[in-house]
Amino acid sequence: MIALRGVRVRYGAHVVLDGFDLELPDGSITALTGPNGSGKTTVARVLLGLVRPDRGVVVGTAGLRRAAVFQEDRLCTRLSAVDNVRLVLGSARDAAAGRAALDALAAVGLSGRDVVVPVRDLSGGQRRRVAIARALAVDADLVVLDEPFTGLDADVRPLLTERVRERCHGRTTLLVTHDPDDVARVGARPVALRSAAPVPVGVGTGRGGPAADVGS
Ligand SMILES: Nc1ncnc2c1ncn2[C@@H]1O[C@H](COP(=O)(O)OP(=O)(O)OP(=O)(O)O)[C@@H](O)[C@H]1O
């Protein structure tokens, strides 16, 4: 079990999370939803060890192999899609890694020219797919996907959500999304971050308690 307990994060004087609790059951997909600015990306960054809470604890993440899709693609723009994915497979010159990278890209609908040209020459949606393919190619213990489907055409979203469902099955995963359809398609357990001012679970107003509502 990975958990955030009593976590507070602030940027200067701006308290984003306060007394925040979240549990990610082992091997299951949790979808974190909530309004703009409520702190979803901050939660993702805490899980990835990129933001350190000034109160509270993060348990269960020590030594885990993590994979992520950030809101930005964070690709090596001069490299091809195949080489971007190969980088996380650990052996750039290995033919098996090359084949695995091609398979990972084919699974998100990319092949041919699109996988061999520098990714800076791809469209925004194609780069998004490379970023997803790269994260899902990693044999990770913890997968954090921060709005991975943003900018993708409606007709390719089902392919991508299916790929996430398949690859994240049995892996502890946090999916940040604004789209309830993504939550359903991925088969995730929904958790709602209600506002930038945390309130206790089951209570409409007030401060200081966990900021998440866990769905069924
Ligand atoms: N590096 C930072 N420095 C200062 N403030 C920040 C920083 N990162 C985030 N914030 C603030 O923290 C709050 C929560 O931001 P965060 O990105 O976690 O929200 P979010 O729920 O992911 O929003 P969105 O749905 O718009 O992506 C926002 O008010 C934001 O302005």
Automatic annotation (TrEMBL):
Residues 2-216 form the ABC transporter domain. InterPro entries: AAA+_ATPase (IPR003593), ABC_transporter-like_ATP-bd (IPR003439), ABC_transporter-like_CS (IPR017871), ABC_transporter_ATP-bind (IPR050166), P-loop_NTPase (IPR027417). It comes from the Bacteria. SMART domains: AAA. The keyword Ribosomal protein does not apply. Keywords: ATP-binding, Nucleotide-binding, Transport. Pfam families: ABC_tran. GO terms for molecular function: ATP binding; ATP hydrolysis activity. PANTHER family: ALIPHATIC SULFONATES IMPORT ATP-BINDING PROTEIN SSUB 2, TAURINE IMPORT ATP-BINDING PROTEIN-RELATED. This is Sulfate transporter. It comes from Cellulomonas carbonis T26.
